[in-house]
TrEMBL record, chain A:
<dbReference type="InterPro" id="IPR017871">
    <property type="entry name" value="ABC_transporter-like_CS"/>
</dbReference>
<dbReference type="GO" id="GO:0055085">
    <property type="term" value="P:transmembrane transport"/>
</dbReference>
<dbReference type="Pfam" id="PF00005">
    <property type="entry name" value="ABC_tran"/>
</dbReference>
<dbReference type="GO" id="GO:0005524">
    <property type="term" value="F:ATP binding"/>
</dbReference>
<dbReference type="Pfam" id="PF08352">
    <property type="entry name" value="oligo_HPY"/>
</dbReference>
<dbReference type="InterPro" id="IPR003439">
    <property type="entry name" value="ABC_transporter-like_ATP-bd"/>
</dbReference>
<comment type="similarity">
    <text>Belongs to the ABC transporter superfamily.</text>
</comment>
<dbReference type="InterPro" id="IPR003593">
    <property type="entry name" value="AAA+_ATPase"/>
</dbReference>
<keyword id="KW-0547">Nucleotide-binding</keyword>
Automatic annotation (TrEMBL), chain B:
<comment type="similarity">
    <text>Belongs to the ABC transporter superfamily.</text>
</comment>
<dbReference type="InterPro" id="IPR003439">
    <property type="entry name" value="ABC_transporter-like_ATP-bd"/>
</dbReference>
<dbReference type="InterPro" id="IPR050388">
    <property type="entry name" value="ABC_Ni/Peptide_Import"/>
</dbReference>
<protein>
    <submittedName>
        <fullName>ABC transporter ATP-binding protein</fullName>
    </submittedName>
</protein>
<keyword id="KW-0472">Membrane</keyword>
<dbReference type="GO" id="GO:0005524">
    <property type="term" value="F:ATP binding"/>
</dbReference>
<feature type="domain" description="ABC transporter">
    <location>
        <begin position="5"/>
        <end position="255"/>
    </location>
</feature>
<dbReference type="InterPro" id="IPR017871">
    <property type="entry name" value="ABC_transporter-like_CS"/>
</dbReference>
<keyword id="KW-0813">Transport</keyword>
Length: 330, 339
């Protein structure tokens, strides 16, 4: 595990009140305009060298957070700082040199590699685009990258269909590493993989982080995985971050009722414990992000909801050092 | 307890251009009345094909080469299509992984739900709809009668899975086969569905076969577990014995690969190196030996049979391995081998 040995305020990435709304048309003929509140007033930072886990259920905006942070979606409002300089508002051209330093690994290693491109070319593309290497030098770098992710360098001339899911994800990781980034958004990098392969990829990501001093934003829905890999964890619900804390605090002393409910929903791989455990299952479904509930967005499902919850948005505050939560009941 | 379903030496293979893919290779297991059996394994291990073989729902390229599937003594592999229709949905209910595609988007929920009731139970349309509304309420969908007129797209993923469960349970089957029913769902919804199935099972006494790749889910629902690899059953045990005293290296590996919500996070996860074999030949060696940290010479020349393990806490604990892994120290292995 990489533990940050840096100071407290050494943030590589800082996000302030980041908001992303999508305009959509709904109804059978698209006759009604609506807004999807994918991300609302989200603030967090990622310290240099750490892994910040971002968890939540599907549709909670965690992937949108990753993409908006990288300016792959333009934010509706809010600011993103990378290495102390603001990146929101930069043009595509101004963004390009920064893209070299911020990379992303996607969930599905099947659709993110072009089937017509050898994996050597796929990995080499960032090198050529950013003019980091060419010719023989590039070939050597590709071989080195394949070796880094545990693939045979001779595979460079093969096509994606010749590889399994786990191997393809290794290729995607090699491609993300090609231009020596500082920061990688890992957007559910293991959820499409089998259990035994997931562990290989987690170990690989951790080894690479140590070797190249990488900073990760690790987006996932699996709490056990997030607990394993992260230093700090942020929990999202319906476009908002509801709780953020160092992982020990978050998992041992969850403050937000949603975090608590999520933790209770995770099955424990121990039959005796599982039989004794209380199964308070959280009721209902995640409401639509088109018309999110007023006040605290969790209030219709919350066991602790009381008077202010349905009309007042709870304040995002630090209840103890490093432990942030947005809840009226805490 | 009496045996409800007795599967013997089931073999299923797929015809492909190069020859055959051997998906299920001599799988035998028994399911007792009211029991919940979990079948665990990674993609391609043959767990789904085994279950589809039971009810002969295989694609045309697949053929069942050998075996018997005895449901209360009748061999499902021998009966004709007409009798088979009575079994499917009548005596054996199924739920599939993807609730988005297992319902017809053009037909309202009520019509889809009443179909099996009309066919298997001989109800009138009106009776079937009334029963469907009750069933919806039973699986936790309030206002069932009104929702019968709605279409699948008006339901969320978890709700659709509830509808599927209501449908599969509608004719009070003796066996419910659930093929990765929670894999496509979020963790809070998964917990709801697991609780629902447990509740229905306890109320109706249906025997459940729960197919999954997720060992954590198994711990909460199963009485007995079968672990599959490369079309073979490699370990079979009551759930407590499996988790406390796993004997097949693959099971041990799967458990080590699970990050958990408790304990130290500083350790590396144990991994199973490599990836599963392709199944183009029937192996005359242990199919796991290339990935196995315990393998010995014999593993490369003989495929082990599923046999009772030594000093088992339960007679039903069987594993297919030449090595008694308790006697071997393996470096890099830290998990699972406690007893």
């Amino acid at each position: 595990m990489s533990q940050t040995d840096n100071g407290n305020s050494d943030a590589l990435v800082r996000v302030e009140n980041l908001t992303k709304h999508f305009s959509v048309r709904i109804g059978a003929y698209g006759e009604t305009k609506a807004t999807v509140h994918a991300l609302d007033e989200v603030s967090f930072d990622v310290q240099r060298g750490e892994t910040l886990g971002l968890v939540g259920e599907s549709g909670c905006g965690k992937s949108t957070a990753g993409l908006t942070l990288l300016q792959l979606h333009r934010p509706t409002s809010g600011k993103v700082f990378f290495d102390e300089s603001e990146v929101t508002g930069l043009s595509d051209k101004e963004m390009r040199p920064l893209r070299r330093r911020m990379q992303i690994i996607f969930q599905d290693p099947y659709s993110t590699l072009s089937p017509r491109m050898t994996i050597g070319n796929a990995i080499g593309e960032p090198l050529w685009l950013h003019e980091l290497a060419s010719g023989q030098e590039a070939q050597e770098r590709i071989a080195e990258l394949l070796d880094d992710v545990g693939l045979n360098p001779a595979f460079a001339f093969r096509y994606p269909h010749e590889f399994s899911g786990g191997q393809r994800q290794r290729v995607c990781i090699a491609r993300a590493l090609a231009c020596e980034p500082d920061f990688i958004v890992c957007d559910e990098p293991i959820s499409a993989l089998d259990v035994s392969i997931q562990a290989q990829i987690i170990n690989l990501l951790q080894d690479l982080q140590e070797e190249y001093h990488l900073t990760y934003l690790f987006i996932a829905h699996d709490l056990a995985v997030v607990r394993h890999i992260s230093d700090r964890v942020a929990v999202m619900y319906l476009g908002r971050v509801v709780e953020m804390a160092p992982k020990e605090k978050l998992f041992e002393n969850p403050l937000h009722p949603y975090t608590n409910a999520l933790l209770l929903s995770v099955p424990v791989p121990n039959p005796r414990q599982e039989r004794q455990r209380e199964h308070t299952v959280i009721q209902g479904n995640v409401p639509s992000a088109i018309s999110p509930p007023s006040g605290c967005r969790f209030h219709p499902r919350c066991p602790l909801a009381f008077e202010p919850c349905d009309h007042e948005v709870p304040e995002w505050r630090e209840v103890e050092s490093g432990h942030w939560v947005a809840c009226h009941a805490v | 307890m009496s045996v409800l379903l007795d599967v013997q030496e089931l073999q299923t293979r797929f015809q492909v251009r190069k020859g055959y893919v051997y998906a299920v290779n001599g799988v035998s297991f028994k399911l007792e009345e009211g029991e919940t059996l979990a079948v665990v394994g990674e993609s391609g291990c043959g767990k789904s094909v085994t279950m589809l073989s039971l009810v002969r729902l295989l694609p045309p390229a697949a053929s069942i080469e050998n075996g018997k599937v005895l449901l209360r003594g009748d061999d499902l592999l021998q009966i004709d299509q007409r009798q088979l229709r009575d079994v499917r949905g009548g005596q054996i209910g199924m739920i599939f992984q993807d609730p988005m595609t297992s319902l017809n988007p053009f037909i309202n929920i009520g019509t889809q739900m009443s179909e099996p009731l009309i066919y298997h139970r001989g109800m009138s349309k009106k009776e079937a709809l009334a029963r469907s509304a009750e069933l919806l309420e039973m699986v936790g969908i309030p206002d069932g009668e009104a929702r019968l007129r709605e279409y699948p797209h008006q339901f969320s993923g978890g709700m659709r899975q509830r509808v599927m469960i209501a449908m599969s349970m509608s004719c009070e089957p003796a066996v419910l086969i659930a093929d990765e029913p929670t894999t496509a769902l979020d963790v809070t919804i998964q917990a709801q569905i697991v609780e629902l199935v447990k509740e229905l099972r306890d109320r109706s006494g249906v025997a459940v076969i729960w197919i999954t790749h997720d060992l954590s889910v198994v711990a909460g629902i199963a009485d007995r577990v079968i672990v599959m690899y490369a079309g073979y059953i490699v370990e079979e045990a009551p759930v407590d014995a499996l988790f406390e005293d796993p004997r097949h290296p693959y099971t041990v590996g799967l458990m080590g690969a699970l990050p958990s919500l408790e304990g130290d996070t500083g350790t590396r996860l144990t991994t199973i190196g490599g990836s599963p074999p392709d199944l183009e030949d029937l192996p005359d060696f242990c199919p796991f030996h290339t990935r196995c940290p315990y393998s010995i010479d014999r593993c490369r020349t003989e495929n082990p049979m599923l046999e009772p393990v030594a000093d088992a806490s339960d007679r039903g604990h069987r594993a297919a391995c030449w090595v008694d892994i308790r006697e071997v120290e393996v470096q890099s292995n830290g998990a699972g081998a406690s007893s």
